[in-house]
Amino acid sequence: MTSDQSQTARPDGLRLRARLRYLYHGAQPAAVKFRLMVILVDLIIIGFFLAAPILKEAGWVFYVADYFIAAILGLDLAARAYAYSDVRDWLKKPIVWVDLFVLATLLFPAWLANFGFLRLLRFWSLLNSDLFWRTIGRRFDDTRVEEITRALAALITFVFVVTGFVYAYFRGKAEHINGYLDALYFTVATLTTTGFGDITLPGNWGRVISIVVMLVGITLFIRLAQTLIRPHKVKFPCPTCGLQKHDPDAVHCKACGQILCIPDDGD
Q: Where in the cell does this protein reside (predicted)?
């Protein structure tokens, strides 16, 4: 009886895994539409995270929405893990741990309330995920758009994570930081090294945070500028040395001299 049940249950499990792999990794139109829906839901959730400091005033309604989003993210992560060929390898990805931490802040809002601002890391993990680039990025045959998008995502995520941190820990403690817009204003003014001085963080820790924001902000700006100015490249692995990026009209690999046959836009 038990063996019969296991024999009938195993194919169902295999069919479910095959279906999830088709949806999360397939190139067919139905799978692409499914992933587009997942990305759209992700963007709506990120919008909720962005508005969370204001929505918290709604009381229990906010926490109901919090747990509802936790259920959605939990199901999505479980489905991605089950669809992956090796769960241990899947867990080695930093993006996965970012998403798991975001899920933890949703499941335990009372204990992890001070880390709620880190939920916006979901925006960074989304734009750096394989799912996003298999769905949206598949329209591009070069790496320029991808590099610009990743650099812009890092900059935007940093701005709003710092804003959330300043709002959570310095609201009412620092002069003139009474709302989320004040925290955003301070972050942008510090990050761009404008330094108007009308809003500052108190104490030595406030100065340290300001220095870190300026240094990281400059680094992210430089990275974005480099991706915008850098010459156009296409991703075409060299069959000999493995060099990934080449000029669109390259005939030989710059690293080893191997003859290349890079397809043009008309192919």
A: Membrane
Token readout for 67 is 């747990």
The predicted-structure confidence for 154-189, as pLDDT tens digits, reads as follows 999 999 999 989 888 888 787 788 888 889 999 998
- Average pLDDT in the 116-145 region? 79
- Two structure tokens written together for 244: 């990934």
- Domain spans of the chain, in order of start: 1-139, 142-230, 233-267
| pLDDT higher than threshold 50 for residue 6 | no
Taking only the tens place, the pLDDT of each residue in 51-96 is 887 777 767 788 888 899 999 999 999 999 988 888 888 888 888 9
The predicted model scores a pTM of: 0.75
Rounded Cα distance, 262 and 252, in Å: 10
Closest CA to 182 of 206, 199, 203: 199
Topology classification of domain 142-230 = Helix Hairpins (1.10.287)
